[in-house]
Amino acid sequence: MDILLIAGLWLDGSAWDDVASALRSLGHRPVPLTLPGQGDGSISATLDDQVAAVLAAVDSASGRPTVVGHSAACTLAWLAADARPDKISTVVLVGGFPATGGKPYADFFELRDGVMPFPGWAPFEGPDSADLDEQARHAMAAAAIPVPAGVATGVVRLTDERRFDVPVVVVCPEFTPAQAKEWINEGDELAKVKHLDFVDIDSGHWPMHTKPAELARLLAAAADAA
């Protein structure tokens, strides 16, 4: 099965290299996406551009793909489910939850010169980055791609209630399944999902870097179940 891999802020498709290799060995076809404005050199890309790129990958996939979103890109995966509810077998959300309709996509940090640069590690101290050593932190910060303002501040628009029919798996890295369930029950978008599962992974916020083989097994299991 095709498994579309959408990395979060400041990352391009290469963030999935180790996961993709493991998925291939498990019999799946990984499709890591490099989004407009996050790896193609453009700073004028918008959220709509990124959504269009994800939908193009869905439309060109073999069969009904599994769509994986990491961190902020959980919203992109969910927007794909909203736009293509009949074409997606399952959505897997790694370390994040989709933004509510009508809200900005990811205006979390200061914008400078039309982009949102990586803010350094201070905002991620604690469980998010506890499993990253100094070498990994330095490499990730050096490779971080500033996110265009048109992406970060783009407004999320959800229109099709059939998205709630698409099965969802929440992969819980720096938080527990119990915490995720509590947050969702407090009124998160996912509270209306009809088929919602939770799986734990003992990692920080970037398991594609620190636990790629384990993450690949979880993604393959979600795809196989679908």
Given the structure, what is the number of helices?
Answer: 8
Would you identify the CATH H-level superfamily?
Answer: Alpha/Beta hydrolase fold, catalytic domain
Distance between the termini: 10 Å
The biggest sheet amounts to: 6 strands, parallel
Number of domains: 1
Order of helices and strands: EHEHEHEEHEHEHEHH
Strand content: 15-25%
Strand tally is 8
Side-by-side strand order of the widest sheet: 2-1-3-4-7-8
Would you give an account of this structure?
Pfam families: Abhydrolase_6. Keywords: Hydrolase. The chain has a six-stranded parallel sheet with strand order 2-1-3-4-7-8, sandwiched between helices. A two-stranded antiparallel ribbon has the order 5-6. The chain is α/β, with parallel strands linked by helices and about 230 residues long. It contains eight helices and eight strands. The model has no long low-confidence stretch (mean pLDDT about 95). Helix 1 crosses helix 8 (about 210-225) and helix 2 (about 45-60) crosses helix 3. About 35% of the residues lie in helices and about 15% in strands. Strand 1 (about 1-5), helix 1 (about 15-25) and strand 2 (about 30-35) form a beta-alpha-beta unit. The chain has one domain: Alpha/Beta hydrolase fold, catalytic domain (Rossmann fold, 3-Layer(aba) Sandwich), CATH 3.40.50.1820. It has helices at about 15-25, 45-60, 75-85, 135-145, 150, 175-185, 205-210, 210-225, and strands at about 1-5, 30-35, 65-70, 90-95, 115, 145-150, 170, 195-200. The radius of gyration is 16 Å and the shape is globular.
